[in-house]
Amino acid sequence: MNMFASVPMKVIGPVAIRGLEVNDEVIVPLATYETPLWATTNRGAKVSRQAGGILATIIDERMTRSIVLQADTAQTCLEVINALEERREELKSLVSSSSRFAKLLDINHQVAGNLLFIRFEFLTGDASGHNMVTQAADNLMTWILQNYQQLKHVSVSGNYCVDKKVSAVNGILGRGKYVVTEMVIPREVCRATLKTEPEKIAELNIKKNLIGSILAGGLRTANAHFANMLLGFYLATGQDAANIVEGSQGLVHTEMRGDDLYFSVTVPNIIVGTVGNGKDLPFVQENMALMGCDVHGEPGQNARRLAIICAATVMCGELSLMAAQTNHGELMRAHIAMERR
Amino acid sequence: MNMFASVPMKVIGPVAIRGLEVNDEVIVPLATYETPLWATTNRGAKVSRQAGGILATIIDERMTRSIVLQADTAQTCLEVINALEERREELKSLVSSSSRFAKLLDINHQVAGNLLFIRFEFLTGDASGHNMVTQAADNLMTWILQNYQQLKHVSVSGNYCVDKKVSAVNGILGRGKYVVTEMVIPREVCRATLKTEPEKIAELNIKKNLIGSILAGGLRTANAHFANMLLGFYLATGQDAANIVEGSQGLVHTEMRGDDLYFSVTVPNIIVGTVGNGKDLPFVQENMALMGCDVHGEPGQNARRLAIICAATVMCGELSLMAAQTNHGELMRAHIAMERR
Amino acid sequence: MNMFASVPMKVIGPVAIRGLEVNDEVIVPLATYETPLWATTNRGAKVSRQAGGILATIIDERMTRSIVLQADTAQTCLEVINALEERREELKSLVSSSSRFAKLLDINHQVAGNLLFIRFEFLTGDASGHNMVTQAADNLMTWILQNYQQLKHVSVSGNYCVDKKVSAVNGILGRGKYVVTEMVIPREVCRATLKTEPEKIAELNIKKNLIGSILAGGLRTANAHFANMLLGFYLATGQDAANIVEGSQGLVHTEMRGDDLYFSVTVPNIIVGTVGNGKDLPFVQENMALMGCDVHGEPGQNARRLAIICAATVMCGELSLMAAQTNHGELMRAHIAMERR
Amino acid sequence: MNMFASVPMKVIGPVAIRGLEVNDEVIVPLATYETPLWATTNRGAKVSRQAGGILATIIDERMTRSIVLQADTAQTCLEVINALEERREELKSLVSSSSRFAKLLDINHQVAGNLLFIRFEFLTGDASGHNMVTQAADNLMTWILQNYQQLKHVSVSGNYCVDKKVSAVNGILGRGKYVVTEMVIPREVCRATLKTEPEKIAELNIKKNLIGSILAGGLRTANAHFANMLLGFYLATGQDAANIVEGSQGLVHTEMRGDDLYFSVTVPNIIVGTVGNGKDLPFVQENMALMGCDVHGEPGQNARRLAIICAATVMCGELSLMAAQTNHGELMRAHIAMERR
User: Strand, coil or helix: what is C165?
Assistant: First the structure.
């Protein structure tokens, strides 16, 4: 039995990106068994170049862990919440003193009966930060249990974090990088490269991504297949790819801008890093270099660049599939053609 | 740039499984960058052997695709729904005539204003069935559009399917294999192997998996980390691993049975196959053979065996992490120890 | 202390409705403390007359109750599910033998570990059916426990029903009357009566009802204030108004039809009856007569007519508020003016 | 046609409450057509007296309105977010200058493509605050549009508020009063008054309220019938009862405390006031006086007392129904007996 297995990887053509930390055509690797994904994403990348580039914006970034404790009563929980509010600077110092990169940003809580869930939010430099925040939360919990002996330990993770599981909290309070990408696609590009009309993509987005997802009982989800591109990108860059679960919860919004199509992709929970588990693998280092995410600079800069490229890649794949689905039969024909090659 | 990248894979120790199509100790491969997952899952596998095996039950299986059409009015949609109900046998024949394996099981619909979403449910033999059901849905849509010209094409996929996205519909109407695994763990095994007490796991399940997930705004989700094991298993067996999104939506239920712990894992949306995309890779074929999922038999048998092994693997990893989280500090100590090796 | 309190009620102007069981201008009563609701709904009613009427379609009707039982293992649950499938006719007879109106339509189930949830779906004549289905489910549970002694009682209601609580299951499997109402509003009517343009309502629906609700972590919810009209209508007609919880989970879909606005309201869970608790109150009987819901006919006819009028009323109020919200400041000005009167 | 209709109302027996602003036995009115609700809630009230009272804690209070604006790009949205962060004191002054009671607490936002949703959170004194926050949000929007002309008006309410609709945001960021009530019920009281055992209630809560609701695709919902008590209480006290939609999204948590039952009810979104629409009706004023919610004191005190009594009433009804559902057949027998009276 071999210990290392092969996942097919391919670099897709240059994606044109404009944004805070990326102003380039960037070549992107995608690892997937579903090889038609390459052609799909590539077509979107071509549009990005023809349309003058994807504008990327990072709205927010943070990584989280929620501990759960219990008291005799909710009143005790509330007293501790209020006390911690007063001592927030102490908590921040505690975090900073035990890690070079972790920085406590904010604290949220929920009380359910006598259970107290405390959600800590951190900056974690260039790491995705899973372990860093678990370590920090562990330290914070130890400190809280020492200082508030009216509380008892339940768990270092109370599922109000929330890691690799469907939730609303990650989108509302934030977890990972919250990235929006936008592009204005001229009608001519739409016709020539995507074989469709701007209005047809705009309409399909409403009927399928918005209404279809609502009917399906979706939760903060309105897209066709964000998860596919996220998976390929995460695997190719050594990420903990199970985070595509929350990554999949994003949305597409479009509007007509005169004759052209404004197309946007909002991905609120991109969880990526350029250091940490999986990042020492040779192909990962090659891929980071390929995308310019291996520069020496202020902590966090590489990870933010990586998140932007990730979101732009999601956009390329999403746009292309949406275009295909506006035409009866195109999707199947494309798949069949692709697999015959 | 290399075209193939390496994902670390490892076989975990034998998992003991009892169920309709598996009565064995089975060795399971898991591909992951998060290497502590192997030790975690292995500990659960050890418990499975000590506790007399995991009982696995397949409650249901089906694969789906939902088309979306539109009419002038909802009344027209309703007329077509009623007409299709009458002609269901014709639809079944249409599906069977164009595929050796696809078999139409059931049809569901939603009407939103003048939009008609039709969700087709199929058996797909040993394939996970993504392409098979898209092809079948495409044929059905063509037939419907020909027979009911009061309808117009919107898309072959209307997000009421729903693929690789968070939803409630997949759990309620079914998509993939719906597998329940169960084990009764003697207190002695709990203590010796899991370093905890049955009551502590039962309590943590309520406070973290059930209540914590509810507070987080989870949707049909009550587990600690199903997604991790699903990802590792899907990658090791050539699956379309983006399906961990719906796979992650499952739940743990426990109860005390006298002195022992009844522990169950319900995974309603396991989407796996033993043939199709990704299954021709040499390491995948090795892994299928390792698990006995490459036998010649009735269509569907290999895929069902694979789904059972998958769910049992999810259980092993889930149990072990839950146990670790009952003890303050154990999780971090384990991670640190693991990564130093 | 007085035993009866006063809720302000008012009849709104005639609503024009076209549909299977209503082809009339109908006067509708609304009971509410929020008196601006009358003017709002009235404006929508005026539009309905000017636009040639609201087309109403009942897509489905059923009432449900889900029992929960438990076994030793999921396999036992599955065996019982399969056995009940074989004996469905017996179950139907059992229901019909103990009630003149209750008729078993369908059965769905969920298995979670060793727990078995069975969701029974019934027709209930002109009653909303809460008690009828509880009685029927109680009988069915008794019969099942007698015939399958491997099962144990947990509860006659397992929250998979689901009554007066947020869920996805009610929209997907059905509970109550599933009604769609539609109207094509000429631009001139939009301008004259609603003081806005068709495009502005269509845009607002996308940005507020669809996208805003998705961001809020809504579940099968895309509307501005269905709950307001439902509450007023339910109180005025003696319904169990706590069912506005599931009633609120519906959606608005619009599209431009040339120069005019297609506006639709989908309300999948209207739970109303013309007989039963609360229906003997004199004002309720007056109101039923006012709307023509007190005729002698086949069971269910009055309740269906009532549901259609209810959905049309929801549409009138929804349309009017949406129009107001397209204009900056109109909402507040209207409220202030209203309350000064 | 009469303009005022009668809703049956009844005062239930004294509920014993201990908490920040209530230390009394309080008599509570409930208006409902579902008259068995009185007996149900009364039984719980009896338990509250026998068990030494319900402990009530207000975790949080705020009222919200979310405007929606749009820009050319997400980058512009982000710039405005950052600018408003700097000028938060100006925004607070703006709110305070135009209202005696409204006080801006916090601001949250979401960006979806080029759409900017800003959620304002306020204190609103003794009013539930619907109109107060709409007025304040309208003023804030006017100011923002004047100061940031790169933004365009979409709507004063963008459904990220969110009023009378299912969501996760209200529970996570807060809307209304977040109240937890707790009680420890001796086994003897459980047996004598509730006719059941503590363990049976604890078990049913797990299987029905937690697991059943999760399977149903519930969202932050784990209770049997909060909505019933909320509706009766809201109608009896002149509230805008459509707010039971978000009110219904709460949860029950229990645990065994030695031989006794710890029973808690968490209701995060109680939206009540003692002044404003509906509060001038004579029966409402009588009811406010009955509960001691008409005292002259600091603004907010009466509304907080009312919220506590409301949550305690929810607890009484919830506990009693849960107890009844532990026994096969009790629910139906009780309903039938009740309706015969």
Answer: coil
Task: Give the tens place of pLDDT for each residue, D97-124.
Answer: 989 999 999 999 999 999 999 999 999 9
User: ∠B82-B86-B89 over CA atoms, to 5°?
Assistant: 135
* Distance (Å, whole) CA B78 – CA C266: 13
Are the Cβ atoms of B5 and A10 closer than 8 angstroms? no
Helix, strand or coil for residue C134? helix
Does some domain include residue A169?
no
Instruction: Report yes or no: B211 at the D interface, CB cutoff 8 Å.
Output: yes
Q: Is the ipTM of this complex over 0.85?
A: yes
For residue A138, what are the domain limits? 63-155
User: Does A184 lie in the same domain as A83?
Assistant: no
Are C149 and C189 contained in the same domain? no
Angle at which helices C88-97 and C130-147 cross, to 10°: 130
Q: Which residues pair with B254 in a beta bridge?
A: B263
- Residues whose CB is less than 8 angstroms from the CB of residue C243 and which lie 6 or more positions away in sequence, other chains included: C128, C163, C164, C176, C234, C269, C271
Q: Are strands B54-70 and B4-19 parallel, antiparallel or unpaired?
A: parallel
Same domain, D42 and D105: no
pLDDT digits over A43-87, tens only? 999 999 999 999 999 999 999 999 999 999 999 999 999 999 999
Best interface-test mutation with C: which of A59, A60, A205, A215 has the largest number of C CBs within 10 A? A215
**Mean predicted lDDT score pLDDT of chain C:** 94
* B175 interaction partners in chain A (CB closer than 8 Å): none
Domain count for chain D, please give it: 2
- Is the separation of the CB atoms in C257 and C323 below 8 Å? no
Whether residue C40 sits in one domain with residue C182: yes
Q: Is B118 contained in some domain? A: yes
Do the beta carbons of residue A102 and residue A133 sit within 8 Å? Answer: yes
Find the angle CA(D336)-CA(D340)-CA(D341) to the nearest 5 degrees.
Answer: 125
User: By CA distance, what is B288's nearest residue in A?
Assistant: A1
Residue A329's region, left for phi above 0, alpha for psi from -120 to 50, else beta, is: left
B82 in a domain, yes or no? yes
Helix, strand or coil, per DSSP, at residue D65? strand
From the list A77, A81, A253, the residue facing D115 with the nearest CB is A253
- From D192's Cα to the closest Cα of chain C, the distance in A is 21
Taking residues B74-88, what's their average pLDDT?
98
Residues C107 and C198 in one domain: no
Whether A167 is covered by a domain: the verdict is no
Note whether C308 and C202 are same-domain residues: yes
Structure token pair of residue D264: 């808690």
Pairwise CA distance, residues B10 & B29, whole Å: 5
Rg (CA), chain D: 22
Is the model's pTM score more than 0.90? yes
What does C8-35 look like in DSSP terms, one character per residue?
Answer: EEEEEEEEEEEESS-EEEEEEEEE-S-T
The mean per-residue pLDDT over the stretch B145-161 comes to: 97
Sign of CA dihedral B102, B104, B110, B114: positive
Q: What is the distance between the terminal CA atoms of chain B, rounded to a whole angstrom?
A: 30
Report chain D's terminal Cα–Cα distance, integer Å. Answer: 30
pLDDT of residue C135: 96
Do B197 and B317 lie in one domain? The reply is: yes
Whether residues C44 and C96 fall in one domain: no
Q: How many CA atoms lie within 13 A of B292 on its CB side?
A: 14
Catalytic residue numbers of B read 34, 164, 240, 335
Q: Which two tokens stand for residue A291?
A: 């995308």
